[in-house]
Amino acid sequence: MAVYKKVQIVGTSGESLEDAIQKAIARASKTLRNLGWFEVKEIRGALAEGRVKEYQVVIEVGFRLEDADSL
């Protein structure tokens, strides 16, 4: 039987929403193991001089918890 955990993180990018998602997942993968999926929860951004300055995405990433025996 597998048990999963979800954590919420925020990715940012000056280029695109996809880049913000990719950066968030890349960073999460440095400290979390067994990442299996993500879900976009919120999309927002920052404006400057009437233009999009930064994209922000709140995502939940899910990962499988390891068995105590495997630690």
List the helices and strands and how they pair.
Layout: E1 4-13, H1 17-31, E2 35-48, E3 51-64
Antiparallel strand pairs: 1-3, 2-3
Characterization of the model:
This protein has 71 residues and is α+β, with helices and mostly antiparallel strands. It has a single domain (4-70), classed as Dodecin subunit-like (2-Layer Sandwich). It has one helix and three strands; from the N terminus they run βαββ. The chain has one helix spanning 17-31; strands spanning 4-13, 35-48, 51-64. The protein has a three-stranded antiparallel sheet, covered by helices on one side. The model has no long low-confidence stretch (mean pLDDT 94).
Keywords:
3 strands; 71 residues; Dodecin subunit-like; elongated; alpha+beta; 54% strand; 3-stranded antiparallel β-sheet
What portion of residues is helical?
10-25%
Low-confidence stretches: none
Biggest sheet layout: 3 strands, antiparallel
- Class from helix and strand fractions: alpha+beta
Shape: elongated
- Reported CATH architecture: 2-Layer Sandwich
Order of strands in the sheet with most strands: 1-3-2
Give the strand content: over 45%
